[in-house]
Amino acid sequence: MLRRPKPTDSESDLLREQEQFLSSGTQSAVNIVRRPDKRRGDIASDDSEKSLGNQRDVVTIPDFPDQLPTLTPAPPKKSRFKKERVCFEDEDPEELLDRHDTHISAVLSRIIERDTSAVPVSFPAFTGTAFPKVLHRSTIQTQVMAPRGKKSIFASQIAAQNAKVRGAESQKDPLVSTPQASGSSTVDGPLLLSGEGLGPDKAEQTLKIHQENQTRLQGMSHSEILEEQKLLLAQLDPRLVDFVRSRKSQKALSPVSPPPQREVCPDQPESKTVQPQCAKPQLDSELPVKPQKEWLHMDKLEPEKLEWMKDLPAPRRQGTKKAMQARFDFSGTLIPPAEDLPVHLGLHHHGDEPELAGYSLQEIFLLSRSKLTQQRSLALNTLAHILSKAHAGEYSTCLSGSVLASLLDAGLLFLLRFSLDDSVESVMSAAVRALRALLVSHEDEECLDATFHWLLGTAVFPLIPPVHEEEDEEDEEGLAKSKKEMTKEREERKLDHDVARQDIALLKMQLLQRLRYILEVVRPVPRTVLDVLEILIRIARHSTFAATQILDCPRLMETVIYEFLPCTWTPTSSPYPPSLYGLPVSTVMKLLRVLSSTGRHVCARILNSLGGRRCLSRFLAMEPSVLLLEPGEAICCSTEALRLWAVSASYGQASKLYIDLYPVLVKTLQAAQKPCGPSEPLQLLELQRITALLSLLTQVTHTAGCHEELQSALLRVCSYYCRSSSIICQPVLRAPSPVAVPSLPSLGCCRAQSARGLVASESPLPLFTALFYLLDNLTSIHRGLFSPLLLAKPMLAYLRCCVGVMPSVSHTSAWLLRHEHHMLYLLLRLAHRLVPVDPEVAKHAPLFHQVALALLSWLLPGSEYLVHKLLRALPSVFLREGATGGPEAATLAELQLQEKFTPLTGLGALLRDALSHLPSIRGCYLTHLAHMEQAVLSSADRHLGRNPWLTSQLLPELTGPSMPSDWPFLPLVSLYEQAGVRQGGGLQVVALPAGALQSVVYCLQWLLLLESWREQALKTVPAGAKLARLACIFLCSSDLFLEQPVQELTWALLRGLTQSGRLEAIDLGTPPPGLASFHDLYVALLAQYEAVSFGDALFGCFLLLPLQRCFSATMRLALFGEHVGILRSLCVSLEQLPVPLESFTNPPEDSLPLLGLYFRSLVTGALRSDRCPVLYSVAIAHLNAFVFSQDAVSQEVEATRRSLLRKTYYLTDEVHPCRLLLLYVL
């Protein structure tokens, strides 16, 4: 039998099968007949067609008609009544039976001719009535009466006809038990044949056919049966085969026991279908409530719907610790999985787990896209509650991951943007509320308002998220202009999802236009209006660009000021008016204040173009009690007006208002001296108003330029700075918030406000900052009056706690750290003035110096002026060791009898020389910080109160501290970057800049002073990073490290790094800051040593340090594998080695490739004791320990060991090192 082609056959397989078919001579299954072309009009007879049979190819299949059957159109559809009444005369009864035959035997094939003699044929009865029959309502109602309620005419007629059909069928089919019904033929009868259509004796015929099939199967072998089965399966449709097999499985799974006998009453025929009246009494008893007659649509029972009214099973308690999906109620509270809540709360629904109460985030998102307005509004309000609780950190302890991040990744922003455009006001208000819960932190705003009256409290950081730039390989020689254009085009091409993931400012989503439409056209309820205003405040705090966009949005600010900050309004009798339109709102005044703080030009637009001066005059000319507003709202409007004026005065603007409103301000200041009672409900608001007035007077004083000496009495200092109130000393408070999202910066004030004494009224930060500022000015007049403050034990304990700490910088902590840094700076300024005149204060000069050095690494952007002042004034005063015998003590400590290597110059002499060059050292560092000049000038204008020169109250973007933590190494790193030009992946050394040698010497002297007397100042710099920074000396020039001052200072620093207490802290496995890995730096050092070292011992010691056993073997492999030529010039003696030799030999080496390189360098003579004594001793020790070790090792190690022994034995040179090693051991 020829094989049929398969889809996987290639062209050669098809050709081979064609040759086999042609050689077999088998007749083809089809015949090709050529027919005449009918388009030419050729009409011929059958003979002519046969003669022209080869003119056209026609495929003919046996047992298939040549002509297609005629297609007759299907009869039009008829109604149920028309089908019953109309009968065609020429209709064939057999076709009628075939049309109603749906048995499986009709699907497979015709096994036996169908016997239709016993099939009854019913024809419509002749009637004398008219056609169609006229229906009368009285007739229909008498025929069939509805069991319950009233039915329509059409339903009554259908019920009457169904009753007739059931009666006729019950008369035709008496209850007679057949063998099949009784179960006698279910044991070994046919599974597919039912006998329908075989006549009266269909059971006998079916059994006979089954017995014939069984006899035939028994006469066949197993192989023949399988072959016939395969042939049958190949011919049948696979879907038909699956249908037969499923039918067989259903029959096989049916119970073999006979059905239960039913009792039949002889007087009443039994129907085949169960009447509803039989099951009704049982269902009525199970109903949760008894139906009433008056209830609509309760006449018919629906069991499948009643299932939902049953009580839910109790939630199953999870026995494992497997995480489950979080579910929330409508207030955003997390529902425990095992909590069983009642169903009347509305928290159960038809979800994946109907027995569990609550909604998951996916289900809430699905509900927010519902067609029903109430469901959309409910979902958005629930999301608002969840966002508020997530910002407060209520889910951080019970949920894994961040809820905010999950919602943002799921597309929350786009859902809210879509919901803001909803035509239903309730849905739109719910979307605004959810957006406000996402963007605005109520605690952040309260804390910023509380710190507004602090010294420099008007300045805040912009809430710009950190930008993670894509790493694109660009040519460094490209023009800056084209680079900016490419960046701008890349930003414009970003999708909405990418923009939202990076920064949730929503400015590219046309949010401002949507908010303007809501305020201007929709005119929502008060709660929605306040939410919109708070969203605008949060956007204004983002950056100056965002504030400018708010002002540039058409009709936005005009609508806000006209509707919610009018100069005339009608007072309302209710404390909660139904609408805020036409009434002053304090939040609008706060919005103007926040916008003004973003820049002087924005402030000028608000005062001049938007009517800010008119608003200030209106709300400050009168007392809050006569503003015809609710008392609390009136005080808030007056307070925000004073704050807005204070911000304007910080730019030197709105100065004429001070003259006009001077009597009002003096009257308010005089009234502030009268203390309010403790029971006064508005006492806190009044205090905020007074502090705002003081902030205004401070800014006006700065603008006027009156810096007269303060002659007032001093405040009695009776409090001390509590350590628990410091954010520097508390890692928990300065750590980033666990619920923070990188693309949505926040201050994290939920934790800061709950902490004791941070922003509360008893917080020491504003008091001490202002006090030290006052004392700083007073000590410039008279010194020595405030020594007890610096010598207080709590103050000294606080300063000791600050030393050696590196606070993490984020938006969560920076807003408070800035004020504490300023307070520390003023405290150090006070100590700077008292140390030269007070011996008791001078005893603590090292502590003050360590705090100053630590503060240099902490100061944030906007505090560059403080950096400049600290570098200029503090080192020469606080380094008192020169006058107290510090260099002599260092010289005595260096005298050790066991020391074998004596340095060229003693440590004491180096320290004494460094102290004499402190002014030059200060100038060196100020020169390398010259790029910060513009930032220093801007910061000086803010700190010195030069208001006319201020451009904005927004501080620079928060990208980290102003100074790096390793700032003492700055001259070395700068020189390395200037001297090295990247070409071809390497470093090409060019000529050193002028003054580079002296700059390096000053840098090394300063480092030596810090390492000797201020070790805590460099504690935050890892030891590996220090070693990497010192290595720049050898890479920035070919002969800089050969200079004698550089040699002496570098030797002293190297000995300090390799002391017994510091050597263990060196970690070269962690990449130092600014480097991809220390291995890359070491490879560059190897190449530089090979080129320009001249066998220098200092350079050699830097190469030997990373070869210790505690570090990675990759650096040892790089030396002995790729740079083995260095071994001929690495002549560092054992006496010059700054670390013990045991750190190179213990523990024994276990790297087989490295041991092989040791052996090869000894055999080839590259490693000799007279050229490289240190590594020669190391290689001999490791090979000795490896070859003659008695430990049980693997087969590979043992084979390598025997190979080395064999090679050593066959060496011919009797004085070879490996031969001597073997003879020594033997």
Describe what you observe in this structure:
- Residues 20-83, 165-199, 249-282, 469-494 are annotated as: Disordered.
- Its main location: nucleus.
- It holds the Pfam family RPAP1_C.
- Residues 968-1193 form the RPAP1/MINIYO-like TPR repeats domain.
- Residues 325-390 form the RPAP1 C-terminal domain.
- By secondary structure, the chain is mainly α.
- Among the domains are: 343-439, no CATH class; 505-569 and 578-704, Leucine-rich Repeat Variant (Alpha Horseshoe); 1113-1226, no CATH class.
- It has 60 helices and four strands.
- The strands form two sheets. It has a two-stranded antiparallel sheet with strand order 1-2.
- A hairpin with a 2-residue loop joins strand 3 and strand 4 (986-989).
- The protein starts with 10 loop residues before the first helix and ends with a helix.
Key structural traits:
two-stranded antiparallel ribbon; RPAP1/Rba50; RPAP1_N; 4 strands; 1% strand; flat; disordered C terminus; RNA polymerase II associated protein 1; 60 helices; mainly alpha
Nutshell version of this structure?
With 1226 residues, the chain is an all-alpha fold. The C terminus is likely disordered.
Uncertain stretches: 42-55, 139-147, 172-187, 253-282, 469-483, 706-724, 752-757, 981-987, 1222-1226
Side by side, the strands of the main sheet go 1-2
Question: Which structural class matches the secondary elements?
Answer: mainly alpha
The major sheet is characterized as: 2 strands, antiparallel
Q: Roughly how many Å apart are the termini?
A: 83 Å
- Helical residue percent? 40-55%
In CATH, the architecture of the domain at 505-569 and 578-704 is Alpha Horseshoe
According to CATH, the fold-level topology of the domain at 505-569 and 578-704 is Leucine-rich Repeat Variant
The average pLDDT value, as a whole number, equals 78
In what range is the share of β-strand residues?
A: under 5%
Please give the radius of gyration in angstroms: 48 Å
| Topology, number of strands | 4
Q: Count every helix, treating DSSP H or I runs of 4 or more residues as helices.
A: 60
Under the CATH scheme, which class of the domain at 505-569 and 578-704?
Mainly Alpha
Tertiary shape: flat
Family: Belongs to the RPAP1 family.
Biased composition (Basic and acidic residues): 39-50, 478-494
Organism: Electrophorus electricus
GO biological process, one term: transcription by RNA polymerase II
